[in-house]
Amino acid sequence: MRRFSFLGRFSLGLLLLAAAVLLLALGQRAGAGGLRTALSRVLTPLQQFVAQQTLPLRQPRSSGAPAPVLTQVAELQARVSSLQGEVTRLRESENQRVLLAQLLKLARANPEYRYLAAQVIGRDVSPYLQFVLVDRGRTDGLLPDMPVLAADGLVGIVTEATASAAKVLLITDPSLVVNVRVQRLRVEGQLRGSGPGLLRLNFVPLQAQLAAGDQLVTSGIGGRFPPDLQVGTITSVLRRDYDVFQEADVQSAINFANLELVLIITNFVPQDLAPLLATPVPAAP
Amino acid sequence: MTPLLLGIGLLPLAALLQSSVLPQLPFPALRPDLMLVIVLAWNLARSRTDGLLWAFAGGLMLDTFSAGPFGALLLALFVVCLAANFIGTPLWDANPLLPLLGTVAGVALYHAIYLGVLLLWGWQLDWRSAASSVVLPAVFLDTTLMLLAYPLARRIARRIAAPQVSL
């Protein structure tokens, strides 16, 4: 009996293992993509609900009071607790108002774009990937490759959108390269994530006199991001005489760990430059 | 309550907590693999088919909340739980240190498989930083959580399931 039970478990284990490998191999193809969409349809509303309920976690909390020993103390504590709840709600409303005002200011500064505000409802469960999930999707007009901003600058790019949610790849992820320009010197380089919250500027010619405090904006080269969006500030420069290029550490003004509201530019069309960059084939003699 | 019902209630909750709540806590570096700890604890405490189903369902939920290759977290989670399940509860019960050692090995294997898949799929990662800033804290944190999760899982497993009688 026990042997039969083990064999059944063994068979189920191998079957599910094969299914896991198959799902991974299929990747984004119709079958696996459909499953992911179906699961997302069920779980995203729950995630939106949880994100709303846990907003107060993002606020600084006051220290706890000593344990009540008298009834009156208990009543007062209950009252304090109720008032603290009220304060937290008001503080949350105030924070939201400030954030929205900042986003509005940003939108007014770049009136040529159409924006869609979205709330961050989750983060990638993998600690290796720098993605956030937002509560807007295809039904709101979101499409992959749309640039995402916050009040303090560039956040990232939409990589995937379901009906009601979207995944945003942050500029701190090493897989996303942003072409930038150093505002003071008008020289260009490439910015790439180098870990959570960290950015590294590469491919800046050695002759350029980079300095801490230099501001970076998107250059628009490559056609993936609109030009002149604020990206970050250089904090330190790494220059070696034997190198062709120099590097610099860059600090974004955005606190990616506490990102709450973002703006998505919905009318920017990324340009596909690949056909123009193809190597020309010499004509046969 | 059957293990299946327990899983239906617990696993989506773990996925939601891991995706939406834990990243907001004051210490962003301390992000335990909550789903891994729960599902692995269940497989250590109860070597039955429901543990495998939990691992499969939990992995699918994690992949839904991840932008990585679909199936990568599922594969990593399932392989670890499959190994724990096949080794069997009698061995894990033999010494109180064994489940903890199993957790250390399991967490390391989980991250190794996941990183391996990302590497195969061509994802750009800072591997040295990943090992030092993610894997090592995760091993420590998940093993610490297992100190709570495993006894709880054992207690629940004993309460909801009658012992199997061999003939």
Overall pLDDT metric of chain A: 82
What's the CATH C level of the largest domain in chain A? Answer: Mainly Beta
The fraction of residues assigned to DSSP E strands of chain A is: 25-35%
Widest sheet of chain A: strand order? Answer: 1-2-5-4-3-12
Largest sheet of chain A: 6 strands, antiparallel, barrel
User: Low-confidence stretches of chain B at least 5 residues in length (pLDDT < 50)?
Assistant: none
What's the domain count of chain A? 2
Describe the 3D structure:
The complex is a heterodimer of chains A (285) and B (167). Chain A has helices at 2-26, 30-53, 71-109, 274-277, and strands at residues 115-123, 131-134, 147-150, 153-161, 166-170, 177-182, 187-193, 199-205, 215-218, 230-238, 245-251, 261-265. With 285 residues, chain A is α+β, with helices and mostly antiparallel strands. In chain A, the strands form two sheets. Chain A has a six-stranded antiparallel barrel. Chain A has a six-stranded antiparallel barrel with strand order 6-7-8-11-10-9. The longest helix of chain A has 39 residues, at 71-109. Chain A is globular, with a radius of gyration of 25 Å. The relative contact order of chain A is 0.12. Chain B is mainly alpha-helical and 167 residues long. Chain B has one domain (3-22, 32-160). Helices cover 76% and strands 0% of the residues of chain B. Chain B has seven helices and no strands. In chain B, helix 2 runs antiparallel to helix 3, helix 2 (34-45) crosses helix 7 and helix 6 (97-120) crosses helix 7. Classes of the chains: A alpha+beta (285), B mainly alpha (167). At the A-B interface, helix 1, helix 2 and strand 1 of A face helix 1, helix 3, helix 4, helix 6 and helix 7 of B.
